[in-house]
Amino acid sequence: MPNTLTMPAPAKLNRFLHITGRRPDGYHELQTLFQMLDWSDQLTFTPTSQPGLLFHCSDPALETDDNLVARAYRLICEQVDQELPVSIHLQKFLPMGGGLGGGSSDAASTLLGLNQLFNLNLDQPTLERLGRTLGADVPVFVRGQTAWAEGIGDKLTPIALDELWHIIVHPNVHVSTATLFSHPELTRDTPVSTIQPELAIHGHNDFEPLVRRLYPQIDQAFECCQDYGNARLTGTGACLFMTMPDQASAENVRHSIQDRLPDANVYAVRGRNLSPAHQHLSAGRA
Ligand SMILES: C[C@](O)(CO)[C@H](O)COP(=O)(O)OP(=O)(O)OC[C@H]1O[C@@H](n2ccc(N)nc2=O)[C@H](O)[C@@H]1O
Ligand SMILES: Nc1ncnc2c1ncn2[C@@H]1O[C@H](COP(=O)(O)OP(=O)(O)OP(=O)(O)O)[C@@H](O)[C@H]1O
């Protein structure tokens, strides 16, 4: 029987996010730069003696059949036509509904972890295709690299950026991705750009004006952050982030913003070019 496998499921930032059109099926064409972060949930996979899934989560409200971990498990079982015998424990650390992609990353790490633990030999394109059926943000976590993305966020070109520190402010409101994408006031006509890593600095997030109008707590967080740098929304929010030159400035600014926004949670996190999930898997293989 294989051994237990414990692996991370990291968060992402959208360093910029341009919406360039809407498709007939309602999904949006976008361009974004996904930045992998050194900040993760944790998944533990333990083989069992009976076929089927035992799923546990540190947050009991998430212990449901429609959790993205359970859905990823069922998808991979269908793909290999086996009911894999496994217990999966999900330890949540990432804020939910924050635009950090935690649920999508949990799904991706489940696909990657089961593939490795049971030697299923599914290749990267197959895992990305399976991931895409679970959500537009899943393929980038399966690829596991900071990447330029187009299409609905699933056409990926890996890009290496400086591994800078970021302040992330979670104003403790929950933003619904589906509601924002279908909002009549969302602008969907940003011109398509060629691949330009500089858009991490000069680009924008098309959700930002709308989200600031709809959520006063998020607007207040932006107001506070403007004393320290240029804040930007990640995904559809609720989190906003600012890029910092080094860890010491990130920690200083984090404390200062946390004091001024006691109802928010403020974090200092390092960007990575390679996902911590992939770092973990390749260290295990070495
Ligand atoms: C906002 C981002 O997080 C940026 O990375 C993603 O675009 C959202 O990705 P996600 O949460 O994995 O999205 P899904 O679970 O696939 O879809 C959630 C909702 O967002 C809408 N959606 C999502 C992605 C996209 N390119 N266009 C869309 O219109 C879908 O219609 C759906 O109603
Ligand atoms: N494993 C999971 N972890 C967190 N949420 C999950 C999970 N599986 C399903 N969900 C559901 O997905 C919702 C959104 O969670 P998530 O943290 O992924 O949002 P997000 O960071 O805004 O994602 P995105 O950036 O992809 O829009 C949760 O409120 C929850 O109902």
Automatic annotation (TrEMBL):
Designated name of the protein: 4-diphosphocytidyl-2-C-methyl-D-erythritol kinase
InterPro entries in UniProt: GHMP_kinase_C_dom, GHMP_kinase_C_sf, GHMP_kinase_N_dom, IspE, Ribosomal_Su5_D2-typ_SF, Ribsml_uS5_D2-typ_fold_subgr
Annotated ranges, domain GHMP kinase N-terminal: 67-144
UniProt feature coiled coil, ranges: none
One Pfam family recorded for the sequence: GHMP_kinases_N
Catalytic reactions of this protein: 4-CDP-2-C-methyl-D-erythritol + ATP = 4-CDP-2-C-methyl-D-erythritol 2-phosphate + ADP + H(+)
Residue numbers annotated as active site: K12, D137
GO terms for MF: 4-(cytidine 5'-diphospho)-2-C-methyl-D-erythritol kinase activity; ATP binding
E.C. number(s) listed in UniProt: 2.7.1.148
Residues at which ATP binds: P95, M96, G97, G98, G99, L100, G101, G102, G103, S104, S105
Family: Belongs to the GHMP kinase family. IspE subfamily.
Keywords associated with the record: ATP-binding, Isoprene biosynthesis, Kinase, Nucleotide-binding, Transferase
Record's keyword annotation contains 4Fe-4S: no
PANTHER family (UniProt xref): 4-DIPHOSPHOCYTIDYL-2-C-METHYL-D-ERYTHRITOL KINASE, CHLOROPLASTIC
UniProt source species: Reinekea blandensis MED297
